[in-house]
């Protein structure tokens, strides 16, 4: 029996193409499209693009001015639970609605927020929001929290800035010089 290399190679290439093409088709139809539909049907979401990785599901969002970040995260996490599974859900919000003024306000309050997050004194965050509103007239500062994130929204007359801060516990590792 003589093996011919051309039919063997052709069969291997066609088989690999069918397997990879089938996998991409399944992933698109069974995972990405339903998650995209869930995200775009959520109130406040203008556009959504999910990306599924090995350990995370990242959803790139464009939000309207009246979006509630905590509600959006909760809706995507609960309705998309069968797709997301045990993976970490991350929201990337497009920066198109922010302004230099809001970026300056965020920079001015960043130390207080970072300290509250590091010390896990989350009750200090609403106090920082009230202080920001009194310090910068015309700025609305709101914060919300759930089991996995702290959501901060800064608004003025023209722009909105959304910030998602993950509530991750600090892990103590081995110091290199110990």
Radius of gyration from the alpha-carbon trace, in angstroms: 23 Å
Q: In terms of structural class, how would the helical and strand content be classed?
A: alpha+beta
**Which CATH class of the largest domain applies here?**
Alpha Beta
**Fourth CATH level, the homologous superfamily of the largest domain:** ANL, C-terminal domain
Q: Could you tell me the CATH topology label of the largest domain.
A: GMP Synthetase, Chain A, domain 3
Order of helices and strands: HEEHHEHHEEE
Q: What is the number of beta strands?
A: 6
Number of alpha- plus pi-helical segments: 5
Quaternary state of this entry equals single chain
Report how far apart the termini are: 66 Å
**Beta-strand fraction estimate:** 15-25%
What spatial order of strands do you see in the largest sheet?
1-2-3
The tally of domains stands at: 2
Mean pLDDT: 89
Q: How can the largest sheet be summarized? A: 3 strands, mixed
CATH architecture of the largest domain: 2-Layer Sandwich
Unreliably modeled segments: 172-178
> What is the percent of helical residues?
40-55%
Transmembrane segments: 6-26
Keywords: Membrane, Transmembrane, Transmembrane helix
């Amino acid at each position: 029996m003589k093996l011919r290399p051309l039919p063997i190679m052709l069969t291997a290439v066609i088989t690999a193409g069918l397997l990879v093409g089938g996998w991409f088709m399944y992933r698109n139809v069974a995972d990405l499209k339903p998650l995209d539909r869930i995200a775009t049907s959520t109130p406040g979401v203008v556009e959504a693009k999910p990306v599924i990785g090995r350990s995370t599901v990242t959803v790139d969002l464009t939000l309207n001015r009246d979006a509630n970040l905590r509600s959006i995260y909760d809706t995507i996490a609960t309705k998309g639970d069968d797709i997301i599974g045990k993976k970490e859900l991350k929201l990337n919000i497009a920066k198109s609605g922010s302004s230099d003024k809001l970026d300056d306000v965020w920079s001015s309050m960043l130390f207080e927020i970072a300290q509250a997050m590091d010390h896990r004194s989350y009750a200090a965050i609403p106090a920082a929001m009230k202080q920001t509103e009194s310090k910068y007239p015309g700025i609305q500062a709101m914060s919300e929290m759930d089991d996995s994130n702290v959501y901060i929204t800064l608004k003025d007359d023209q722009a909105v800035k959304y910030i998602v801060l993950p509530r991750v516990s600090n892990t103590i590792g081995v110091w290199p010089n110990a």
